[in-house]
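Sequence, please.
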């Protein structure tokens, strides 16, 4: 199994758990008390984790669609799925790669604010996490797109070079 397949399995489990939690326990978060609080926070956090994971997949799939070089990360302990070589990517490839993540974030904003029911702690937690992630997208990723449009090329700051994996065992 290659690393992208391992990331896909990991993230499919997260999304699957989010869906299962939503359908089975989210409604309990309409009540008050510790069980309602726990189910609301866990379910909302799983929706938020799904939004983050799928945002990254949006970037990766768009990079592939644009023909950009994207190499998988070497371990599952990170949220960074891939290494992106901004220096060897065209402006168009960079913009398409960026748009993929933005589209997923927009979808989750619509889902949490337009579809999920009011009155559930799970919804409020999911909305808070997704809104926070969207604000990070605006603060961290939109400026890179603006720089790219101004310079006419993908900015070097957008490149993600992953450090090679080192052994976690000591030499001695």
């Amino acid at each position: 199994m290659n690393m992208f397949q391992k990331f896909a399995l990991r993230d499919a489990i997260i999304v699957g758990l989010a869906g299962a939690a939503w359908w089975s326990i989210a409604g309990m978060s309409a009540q008050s008390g510790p069980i309602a609080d726990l189910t609301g926070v866990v379910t909302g956090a799983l929706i938020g984790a799904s939004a983050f994971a799928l945002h990254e997949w949006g970037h990766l799939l768009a990079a592939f669609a644009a023909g950009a070089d994207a190499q998988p990360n070497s371990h599952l302990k990170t949220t960074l799925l891939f290494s992106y070589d901004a220096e060897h990517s065209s402006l168009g490839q960079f913009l398409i790669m960026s748009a993929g993540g933005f589209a997923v974030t927009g979808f989750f904003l619509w889902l949490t604010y337009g579809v999920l029911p009011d009155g559930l702690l799970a919804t409020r937690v999911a909305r808070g996490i997704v809104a926070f992630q969207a604000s990070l997208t605006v603060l961290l990723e939109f400026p890179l797109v603006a720089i790219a449009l101004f310079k006419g090329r993908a900015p070097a700051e957008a490149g993600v070079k992953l450090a090679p994996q080192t052994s976690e065992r000591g030499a001695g």
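The chain is about 65% helix and 5% strand.
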